[in-house]
Amino acid sequence: MKTTTEAGREAGDAALGTRERIVRAASRLMQRQGYEGTGIKQISREAGATLGSVYHFFPGGKQELATEAIRHGDQEFTDILREALDGADDPAEAIAACARTVAEALRASDWIDGCPVTATSIGTAESAPDLQRAAAEAFARWRGLVEDELRASGFAEESARELAHTVISTLEGAELAAQLARDEAPLLIAGRHLARLIDSYR
Amino acid sequence: MKTTTEAGREAGDAALGTRERIVRAASRLMQRQGYEGTGIKQISREAGATLGSVYHFFPGGKQELATEAIRHGDQEFTDILREALDGADDPAEAIAACARTVAEALRASDWIDGCPVTATSIGTAESAPDLQRAAAEAFARWRGLVEDELRASGFAEESARELAHTVISTLEGAELAAQLARDEAPLLIAGRHLARLIDSYR
DNA sequence: GTCTATAACGAGATAGAC
DNA sequence: GTCTATCTCGTTATAGAC
Question: Which Pfam families match (chains A, B) (predicted)?
């Protein structure tokens, strides 16, 4: 049995490898403070690692680390979305359930943990195009998940494709609105409206 | 007739007062680079003002200036929204037209000028709550505009209130998605879906 | 109101011992 | 792989002449 010599600063991350702890800390901090607002020193501190370790695993520096953090956030929401789509009877209800899940998480964090992909990538179009690409890939993956589910439920190709676009856009915007207003209403209303919109294409 | 002694660096801003030039430069730069990614020196340079002038007009420093920049962005989109609502026959068509307007502006900027309010306020929940409040007020104002128009068109109170929420959330999210994908499709699709959703409440 | 100079601090990144 | 020390540069903000 392997033992971990260092206790990570993050609850529950003690058993993780150093690289993974760094990525998680980066993702969580940039989710709250953005790319420019988060320092590498702060990340290494929170991850229970040294600055040298960060540059050992990410020789490309902050940009490379942030790109990995976005991929981590991508995977997080992919899991939430897949679970919602698998757990409900029809796609419309699944999307509404997904909105409720996001609302709960947002409230639980006292409205500070928004979408990690958006928060990390916004404002970096000129300075760090790598982040933009990783974020665009995340949006595309989420959209693809919804589109596949709609097609599998018998929706026409074009309807499925377009509805998937709006589902992701609306969830993203409603999360932003809910965070700013410190109120889950925007997300819950959006979930119901999306379900209604989807049903109107049956 | 008054003369302006200094030619501002911004095209068309030459005749403006110093304070206004600073606010506009701040709004435009933070729209592209975010709050943390934009420096006061860069703002003063682009505004054709000195650092001393910035602190003269905004003794509260960067936060005070950013708050004013958000209010400026608020007003900008308020104007776009009001024009769209006044120019169309019914609210559904007005919202779709608004989405097209936003898409055009986004493409014209080569996908770098997103929503100034969102870009400036995101990631500041912990460090600058003033910005959050100003951004929340902007969202609420836009929502109020849409809600009033819907009620004036005969929609039920609750429908108008909830639709207004989703209209703003979806436009905001679709602008984000369009910017990341460098493609206006998310916005154009969102505009059509919102019109359809609104019509379903008639 | 405008300008320059600078203080005080933190950032990203690197070197090299262990 | 980990750690510490340090280099260099940019940041916000202030002081004080004009």
Answer: TetR_C_13_2, TetR_N
pTM over 0.90: yes
Angstrom distance (rounded) from CA A48 to CA B110: 41
DSSP A137: H
Share of chain A above pLDDT 70, in %: 94
Give tens-digit pLDDT for B127-175. Answer: 999 999 999 999 999 999 999 999 999 999 999 999 999 999 999 999 9
pLDDT for position A14: 74
Q: In angstroms, rounded to a whole number, what is the distance separating the alpha carbons of residues A32 and B99?
A: 29
**CB-CB contact of B171 with B99 (8 Å):** yes
- State the best of A122, A163, A197, A198 to mutate against chain B, taking most chain B CBs within 10 Å: A122
% of chain B exceeding 70 in pLDDT: 94
Mean pLDDT of B26-52: 98
Virtual CA dihedral for B100, A178, A9, A26, nearest 10 degrees?
Answer: 0
Report how far apart, in Å, the C-alpha atoms of A143 and of each of A8, A93, A166, B179 are. 35, 17, 9, 15
Q: Are B139 and B115 in contact (CB under 8 A)?
A: no
DSSP A146-199: HHHHHHHTT--HHHHHHHHHHHHHHHHHHHHHHHHHT-SHHHHHHHHHHHHHHH
The integer distance in angstroms from the CA atom of B39 to the C1' atom of D11 is 7
- With H, G, I as helix, E, B as strand and everything else as coil, classify residue B2: coil
Residue that has been written with the tokens 């001393």 in this structure: B52
For A:43-102, CB contacts with B below 8 A are: none
Question: Is residue B50's beta carbon less than 7 angstroms from any atom in nucleic acid strand C?
Answer: yes
| Residue A189 near residue A195, CB atoms below 8 Å | no
Residue B99 · residue B178 · CB < 8 Å: no
The angle at the Cα of A197, spanning B164 to B93, to the nearest 5 degrees, equals 50
Q: What domains can you pick out in chain B, each with its CATH number?
A: 4-200 (1.10.357.10)
